[in-house]
Amino acid sequence: MEERKRNRLPCYDYSQPGAYFVTVCVKNREHILGEKVQYCRGRCPHRPNTEDYGKIILSPIGKIAEKYIKTMCGVQKYIIMPNHIHFMIVLDGSMWASTPTIPSIVRSFKTLVTKEIGYSIWQRSYYDHIIRNEEDFFQHIQYIEENPKKWKNDKYF
Predict the structure, then answer these.
(1) Could you please report the per-residue DSSP string of 31-84?
(2) Do the beta carbons of residue 76 and residue 89 sit within 8 Å?
(3) In what helix (H) or strand (E) does residue 13 lie, and over which residues does it extend?
(4) What confidence tier does 61 reach under pLDDT thresholds 50, 70, 90?
(5) Can you tell me the distance from the alpha carbon of 156 to that of 74, in angstroms, rounded to the nearest whole number?
(6) Is 54 left (phi over 0), alpha (psi -120 to 50) or beta?
(7) What are the boundaries of each domain within the chain?
(8) 3-class SS at 153?
(9) What does CATH list as the number for 18-153?
(10) 3-class SS at 4?
């Protein structure tokens, strides 16, 4: 059996103070967390507010996920897409007697959502990126903010 590629950096302490960009995906990239609001050109009777361009309307499952995101420690920014979620998590090490790790935060989030829904919707593991500097931080914040507008170009759309 082929060994699965390791996603985490070996010997890296994921409880270190710092910023982390994390992406969790839905199994089989199913669009069950929400739907993208479509842009209308000119007058749009069913969506008159064109400021909604690129926003995501959450499904009931997406709303459950958002409820638990709001309780996660260190989340600075997030976006729930139809088939994945991006988070910017900042650990500063000062608020907690026992510092949480990125893997424990993600595991807790997935577990809480799974328990409330009654079955797992999550793809195994997750993607993470350790933020290296201020420029890297703001590039990933911008990516989170602009992700809904770029949804049609997403390779998993």
Answers:
(1) --SEEEPPP-SS--TT---GGGTT-EEEPHHHHHHHHHHTTSTTEEEEEE-SSE
(2) yes
(3) none
(4) very high
(5) 28
(6) left
(7) 18-153
(8) helix
(9) 3.30.70.1290
(10) coil
Residue 131 CB neighbour total at 10 angstroms: 19
Annotate 82-149 with DSSP letters as a single string: SSEEEEEEEE-SSS-SS---HHHHHHHHHHHHHHHHTS--BPSS-EEEE--SHHHHHHHHHHHHHGGG
Residue 29 to residue 81: CA distance in whole angstroms: 11
Question: pTM, whole model, 2 decimals?
Answer: 0.81
Classify 11 in phi/psi space as left (phi over 0), alpha (psi -120 to 50) or beta. left
Tokens of 144: 């989170």
Residue range 8-57, pLDDT digits in tens: 556 666 777 889 999 999 999 999 999 876 655 444 555 555 455 567 89
